[in-house]
Amino acid sequence: MTTETEDTGDESADAREARRAIEEYLSRGAARTDQSEGSAGRPGQADDRVAECVAREAWDAVQDATPAPPDPEAGPAEKTEMSPERAELHRRAVAVARGLRELGYHLDETLLPGPDMAAG
Q1: What is the C-alpha end-to-end distance of the chain, expressed in Å?
Q2: Which of 17, 18, 60, 115 is least enclosed, having the fewest CB within 10 Å?
């Protein structure tokens, strides 16, 4: 699959977000070692493994912005709202995962948004 397709305006915002995330990932060169032989070495190409790495990076960013759990010995913790930074990262991770699926990539179920998702 390629990220170099023409955007006809028919794509959802999620698909556009997923394409941006793939392009960012490929431009960093991170995919060179992650791509399968079928698409390795061809600029702008992504396969399911690359898509999975892109989705995992998006969820990892959410986890990195999540504060550590409170110390249980300190007593009950107050419920706090999600920070704006974490909320935006979470929104993007959901959009990337949905967009990748919309573009036809297969993702492990743990990377898909849902009520009991392991990723976020």
Answers
A1: 26
A2: 115
HSE-CB of 75 using CA atoms within 13 angstroms: 1
pLDDT digits (tens, 9 = 90+) for 58-112: 999 999 988 887 777 776 666 677 889 999 999 999 999 999 999 999 998 889 8
Closest by CA to 112, choosing from 81, 21, 71, 102, is 102
Using CA atoms of 23, 27, 32, 34 in order, give the dihedral in degrees to the nearest 10.
-40
> Of 97, 3, 96, whose CA–CA distance to 42 is shortest?
3
Whether residue 70 contacts residue 42, with contact meaning beta carbons closer than 8 Å, is answered with no
**pLDDT tens-digit series, residues 22-61:** 999 999 875 455 444 444 444 456 789 999 999 999 999 9
Q: Angle 48-64/13-27 helices, nearest 10 degrees?
A: 90
The Cα 35–Cα 48 span in angstroms is 9
